[in-house]
Every structure is written in C-alpha cells, then in structure tokens.
Amino acid sequence: MAVTDGGAARVGSRACDDARMSRRGTRDRTPASTLLDPLGQPWPETGPPRRIAVLGSTGSIGRQTLEVADWLGAEVTALAAGRDVDGLLAQVERFRPALVSCAPEVADRVRAGLPVHTRLVPGAEGAREVATADVDSVVAAIPGFRGLGSVRAALAAGRHVALATKEAMVCAGPLVWREARAAGGRLTPVDSEHAGLYQALVGEAWEGVATLVLTASGGPFREGPADLSRVTPEQALRHPTWQMGPKVTIDSATLFNKGLEVIEASVLFDVELERIEVVVHPESIVHALVRFHDGSVKAQLGPHDMRLPILYALAAPERPSVPLAPLPLTGTLSFFAPDLGRFPCLALAYEAGRRGGTAPLVLNAADEVAVEAFVAGRLRFDAIPDVLERTLAAVPAADLSWDVLDEIDAAARSAAAEAVTAVAS
Ligand code: MG
Q: Tens digit of pLDDT for each residue in 168-178?
C-alpha cells in the first residue's frame, strides 16, 4: 500500500504555522517543543521523504526500510550493500536505484547483473557516495564501527540521517553531533528504544525530565541456564521477540546491546549516564519510558516490528497510516530489574560511558572481536565480559577526535584478540 502525503501533512504544517504565528506575535507563548524536535532540531517542513538512500540495504534494517519506503511511496535512489549479491540485485530489480555500492570482492558479480542506468561504485568510496546522494533521507544501517564513515559523510553533506548504526553514537557521538550541527545535517533515531524515547519526549520541556528508561527483552537466557559457560552460538542467536542481525542478537543475549544503547541514549539526548535507566521487559511492547520530576511516567508502546521506528525516524512528526494490525491491548506486561551479576556487560558499558573519551570506542571494538570469536567457537559465552574488561584495562582512554578513532579502534581490536587468546586458554 502506498501512502500519499495528502492527509498526513497536517502535523508538520501545524508546527510551521505555529512558528509563523509566534514570529508575527499573534500568540503569547509558543512552546519551543512545537518548533523543535526532542533533539533540539527543527522539524522538517516538507513531510515524509520522497527520495531515500539506504546504507546497509541487504541487512535486517535495510530490508525493512525498503518496505517502509514502499509504504511511503518514496523513491529509493541509492543503495549500499556488502557481500549479498543476490539480495542487492533483487533490490535493484525492484527499486531501480541510480547508484549502488557493494564490497569490492563481489563488484564484478554485481556489475554483471545491473541494468544500464544503475551506476556501481564499490567499497567505502561507494558507501560515501550513497551517503551523500541527492535524497531527503539517508537510512544508516551498516552495523558496527565500520558504519561510522558513511554516517559522518551524510551529515557533513547536510543530509537527514535516520540512524540505526548505534556504534556511530557510541564511538564518536560528540563528533557526529558537531558534524551535523556544522553542516545543517539532522539526526533521528531508528533504534526502537531511542525512537520510543524520541516519541515520548515530543511536546515536553527538558526541564521536566528526570530520567530516561530503556527496556530490554532480557534475551534468551533471562531465566536460565544458571551456568552460561556452555551456551552455544545457535542458542544465543535464538532471540525470544526481535528478528535482528547476528551481532545485535548475541549482544542482546549478553545485555551488551543494552549497554551500547545506554551510551547511545546519553549522547543522542545529551543526558548524563546516571539519568539513563534500564528495565527488563520480556514482552518488548513498551520500548522506552520517560520519568518526569512530577512523578509521572510516559511510555511508548508498539508491536516489536522495526518497521515502525524506521517509519517514525523518516516521517516524524507525521504518522502516516500503515497496513499493520493494531497492537492488541490484552495480556500482561511485566518489568524486572536487570541482573548485573549474571550479565556484567551492561555494567561495563556504564563504566566505559563514565570514563568517556575513547573508552566506549574501545569497549565496542572489544565486543565486536569477542562476539566474532564466540560465533566462531573460539570463546565461551560467559567469557565475553572478561574480554571486554581486559581490553578496557589494556587501552587507556584518550580524548575523542576524528584523527584518533581508527588508531584506537585498531589498538583495541588487537588487545581484544590477545584477551580472547588469554581467556580461552
Ligand atoms: Mg534496540
């Protein structure tokens, strides 16, 4: 179903009208929050994007973004993928983008399957070209630290970035924000918890906000087994509620994903780490909550379907109707405190966030190495936090700058590889 912007343009234009009215002085008080989004950015005046570029198009978020693009009737003009040749070519066939990128090692196979009007630029250079394509919105969904370069390029080109690559905020958040502010780029969160916070904060003044609360499903091992040392990659990849890529699924099982999200929320919303709470909520229906100083709590609920946060990240503040069944409001919602003893990765993320500078970058690199080793059968599940802790101790935190990122990331990866060898032996 294609959704036209006919009826949906109202909310955005109302915000604009308020702006004009207040400038004319016909209203005494216009709350700033009707002009600015919860991140302090002007709401878009043009409605949902008409043209979209997707970084990481063949991954889980990328594929769901293309469904959302269909809902919006948006044109998909540029796609960056990795090594999934068949997946990329099927998307090209369906969406006819003008530009695509892929991993250099599969470029010949991709080129052979492309129609004449689609241009191919392989590798990181291609991802940057896709990131800076002439579009209204760029969905950034290349997972991991390697997704950062194209996020930076898109913001430096003044694009709106719907951000799924949480590592960009975790590893270089303050730099990413500076880039966005300097070039007039705009950011909206795709991560479901952050999209939930973003929605719960619309219309609220920051002075009233006490804490931000992220929910965690608790992963597949919330209730057992008591001994996590024998957990296999197959078990850890079986997430109870969300369908996601392999790295984030393992990170959900260790609660490290929630740790990344705590840091992401702190940097994205510019709120101290101590004011970010985590609550385990196995049903994954409440995505986030905001506690206010008056004791009130505002929650955002929705089915666990990533297409909804993607849609809001693209279309906010508008809410186009979509072809999904309404959320059933029967059943039970439960909430528990996280078990930090059983899942130390969450506590380690708070620790890295408190140290600041490059510490979150180091922790992220350590986890990417540890999860790869676990999936390859070279590291026990319950040894992942040991690798994180050892790496954090081995690589001293430095001040954050674009110049040091690659160097510190590489140092952290080699320290983490040594830690894997040490704890596995
Ligand atoms: Mg999330």
A: 999 999 999 99
